[in-house]
Amino acid sequence: MPRFFTGQVNRERALIVGEDARHIALALRMKAGERLTVCDADGQDYQCVIERISPEQVELRVEEVAPSAGEPGVWITLYQALPKGDKMETIVQKAVELGVGRIVPVLTHRCVSRPDDKSMRKKCERYNRIALEAAKQCGRGRVPEVAPLVGFREAVAQMRADPLALFFYENADQPLREVLSGRLGDRVSILIGSEGGFEPSEAAFAAENGLVPLSLGSRILRCETAPLAAITAILYQAGDI
Fold first, then answer.
1. C-beta of residue 29 within 8 angstroms of C-beta of residue 42
2. What is the pLDDT of residue 174?
3. Cα–Cα distances in Å, from 37 out to 15, 46, 57, 84?
4. 3-state secondary structure 37-63
5. Quick one: how far is CA 154 from the chain centroid?
6. Contact predicate 89/67, CB 8 Å
7. pLDDT (0 to 100) of residue 240
């Protein structure tokens, strides 16, 4: 069943406007009386029937409301050191598909990509569009936010607010499995380096501030592979995969 996000929905009525309305009316050629799923971007699914439809707006009657089955039971915030080129786009897309709750780009010492404020704002706009499309495609009930870029120390400070904060470091020797088996709750934040990983001083600072240094195995993973491996392992342990 087609699904769309809208902020104009309650337990009785829903309204879809703009590009999505045009897509429903002209591309999908849906008619009054047909059903689709509306999501409020806050984890609720609304099963709806189309009452009136035009390329400008689609008016719907809500028949049923339920928590979205596409949302995992553990909220994962991914703090990702900014990689080169378009790798961040891939990370955003695949992390959203897997079930990440929020993504925060981080500027670390070894980041080669160092966009100015204007360029980074444009990048974040694109990342959030990618997150929206990925959420639609994979059946999410939320659209994970891609937050503005933060510095390394700010990222560590934010992560300390979560019950479990992990960072993946090539020189760490404790496997992820050991930590997840005893400490995984409903919120976890993870920090992944860019192509060059972390400076030793950054790793030391993170550990001193309560982040748990972990290994993803004996192989060196690319910066676009590591977050997906970590997210998958966490969701598996949480019973969501």
1. no
2. 86
3. 12, 6, 15, 37
4. EEECCECEEEEEEEEEECCCEEEEEEE
5. 19
6. no
7. 87
pLDDT digits (tens, 9 = 90+) for 128-160: 999 999 998 888 989 999 999 999 999 999 999
Task: Report residues of the chain scoring pLDDT below 50.
Answer: none
pTM above 0.70, yes or no: yes
User: Which of 218, 159, 163 minimizes the C-alpha distance to 192?
Assistant: 159
Contact predicate 203/213, CB 8 Å: yes
SS3 (DSSP) at 226: helix
Give, rounded to a whole angstrom, the gap between the first and last alpha carbons of the chain. Answer: 22
Q: What is d(CA 148, CA 106) in angstroms, rounded to the nearest whole number?
A: 9
Task: List Cα–Cα distances, 224 to 87, 195, 236, in angstroms.
Answer: 6, 9, 19
Count of CB atoms within 10 A of residue 2's CB? 14
Residue 160, classed as helix, strand or coil, is: coil
Pick from 104, 192, 108, 118: which is nearest to 151 by CA?
A: 108
Contact by Cβ (8 Å): 186, 74 = yes
Q: Where are the beta strands (DSSP E) in the chain?
A: 3-5, 13-17, 35-39, 44-53, 57-67, 75-81, 102-107, 145-146, 150-151, 165-168, 187-192, 212-214
- The whole-angstrom distance between residue 195's C-alpha and the CA centroid of its chain comes to 20
Output the CA angle 168-97-58, nearest 5 degrees.
145
pLDDT for the residue 42: 84
**64: helix, strand or coil:** strand
**Do 141 and 71 meet the contact criterion of CB atoms below 8 Å apart?**
yes
